[in-house]
Design brief:
Elements: H1 2-17, H2 23-34, H3 41-51, H4 57-69, E1 74-78, E2 81-86, E3 94-97, E4 103-105, E5 118-119, E6 125-126, E7 132-135, H5 138-145
Parallel strand pairs: 3-7
Antiparallel strand pairs: 1-2, 3-4, 5-6
Helix pairs in contact: 1-2, 2-3, 3-4
The structure holds zinc ion (ZN) (2 copies).
One zinc ion binds near residues 100, 102, 137, 139 and 140.
Length: about 150
């Protein structure tokens, strides 16, 4: 369901923005929406090698950058690890583990979510923001305790 919705969004966006809908772009969107664990470029690349042999890591990265520019994906930067990507572009907080680098959605979505305030007094238009909670996951906490 989510997968189909995102593929349609990609097609519509390509049409309206005059971006070509290449097999590479379709394939990256497919593998990204097939998993909900905020994969890195490397993880997506691994998933893609079966479907699109010969596609380079650089291509995967470029496709994701294009998606980000088009507002189709969110890039989650964390000081803990490499960039992770999310096809769910709704405003929602992420938890980043400083131990293993994993990124998960913070499920209590009531936390910290405010509408972007719009235009500030000095004319800065705020259109988006990100909430990243950092800490240690259960597994990493266990490893520290032992
Ligand atoms: Zn961890
Ligand atoms: Zn997310």
């Amino acid at each position: 369901m989510f997968e189909e919705k995102k593929l349609q969004e990609l097609k519509d966006m390509c049409r309206s923005r005059g971006v070509s809908l290449t097999p590479q772009r379709l394939a990256v969107m497919r593998v990204l929406t097939a998993r909900r664990d905020h994969p890195t470029v490397d993880q997506l690349y691994d998933d893609l090698t079966e479907q699109m042999p010969g596609m380079s890591r650089t291509t995967v990265y470029r496709v994701l950058e294009t998606f980000e520019r088009l507002g189709l994906v969110r890039k989650i930067d964390s000081r803990a690890s490499k960039a992770h990507f999310d096809a769910d572009t709704s405003l929602h907080p992420h938890m980043v583990c400083l131990g293993c680098g994993k990124v998960v959605d913070y499920q209590d979505r009531g936390f910290g979510i405010l509408e972007p305030p719009g235009i500030t007094d000095d004319g800065f238009e705020i259109i988006d923001y990100a909430v990243t909670l950092v800490g240690y996951c259960r597994q990493c906490r266990r490893n520290v305790d032992n």
